[in-house]
Amino acid sequence: MNITLRQLRAFVAVAEAGQFTQAARNLHVTQSALSMLIRELESQTGLRLFDRHTRKVVLSEPGQELLGTARRVLAEVEEAVRHSKELTSHQRGRVSIASGTVLSSSLLIPFIALFQQRYPGIRVELLDMAEQDISRRLEQEPIDFGLGTDWNRPDTIEAHPVMQDQYQALLPHHHPLTAKAQIRWHDLATHPFIALSSHSPLGQAIQRQLTALDIRFAQVHEVSLHTTVLSMVRHGLGLAILPANTQSLPEAAQIIFRPLKAPVLPRQVSLLQLRQRSLAPAATLFRSELLAHIKRQHSGG
């Protein structure tokens, strides 16, 4: 059985008009074409759908039973078409993105606020998490994107570099090292150090550099959260190293940031995506707008 939408529309039009002539006008087809569609539908169903009278046609009993179903099918098709148009025209949709807390606070949340002002029908879901969990969550869950440090990435994840900043030294407000415009890594060695967890990409990148420079701190506090690092530095419990964008957090207001030299250590931030995951129109739009937003920010526009 191969019933078409044209046949169903013809059937409903004749049932509602009560005659072929008016139904043909309503559908903008010839009466002979309309009659052919009804005959094809009757042939497909094996049912006589109308009783023909001199001036009008009346639904047969099987036709009455089919009418409700035909209307529902056509309504569902129209709803599907409307929904598809809304998706492609960005009137509705859903996007999900995973990120660490600092990039979420400093970059994504302000951008999402702007994006949703322009596209209120698109729902954006932000999942803040430890950076080391982003790739695993992209592989295991229906998440469109991740934003984070491009480090130790599996082959299943593709990365689009979006920005780069540098690791900087974080000092309490009245610390003697604040007198320097730039700080050497070895300048930190004689002070208590507050380290990010060795499980995090940032913590591991910092530790690799410290190991390469053969720097060993006499006292080390290892913590998991950026906000804990900032609070400990602010209260004079030690020095720390974090990416420059950490300055944008409210908790960093009373902390002095100084560039690190000998060597300068860059940090690459990338937009991450599962290679096999296709993007819906809303997600494609979000990606394009986010990349443009980051480019404007870093070009001073």
UniProtKB/TrEMBL annotation:
<keyword id="KW-0805">Transcription regulation</keyword>
<keyword id="KW-0238">DNA-binding</keyword>
<protein>
    <submittedName>
        <fullName>LysR family transcriptional regulator</fullName>
    </submittedName>
</protein>
<keyword id="KW-0804">Transcription</keyword>
<dbReference type="Pfam" id="PF00126">
    <property type="entry name" value="HTH_1"/>
</dbReference>
<dbReference type="GO" id="GO:0003677">
    <property type="term" value="F:DNA binding"/>
</dbReference>
<feature type="domain" description="HTH lysR-type">
    <location>
        <begin position="3"/>
        <end position="60"/>
    </location>
</feature>
<comment type="similarity">
    <text>Belongs to the LysR transcriptional regulatory family.</text>
</comment>
<dbReference type="GO" id="GO:0005829">
    <property type="term" value="C:cytosol"/>
</dbReference>
<dbReference type="InterPro" id="IPR036388">
    <property type="entry name" value="WH-like_DNA-bd_sf"/>
</dbReference>
<dbReference type="InterPro" id="IPR050950">
    <property type="entry name" value="HTH-type_LysR_regulators"/>
</dbReference>
<dbReference type="InterPro" id="IPR036390">
    <property type="entry name" value="WH_DNA-bd_sf"/>
</dbReference>
<dbReference type="Pfam" id="PF03466">
    <property type="entry name" value="LysR_substrate"/>
</dbReference>
<dbReference type="InterPro" id="IPR005119">
    <property type="entry name" value="LysR_subst-bd"/>
</dbReference>
<dbReference type="InterPro" id="IPR000847">
    <property type="entry name" value="LysR_HTH_N"/>
</dbReference>
<dbReference type="GO" id="GO:0003700">
    <property type="term" value="F:DNA-binding transcription factor activity"/>
</dbReference>
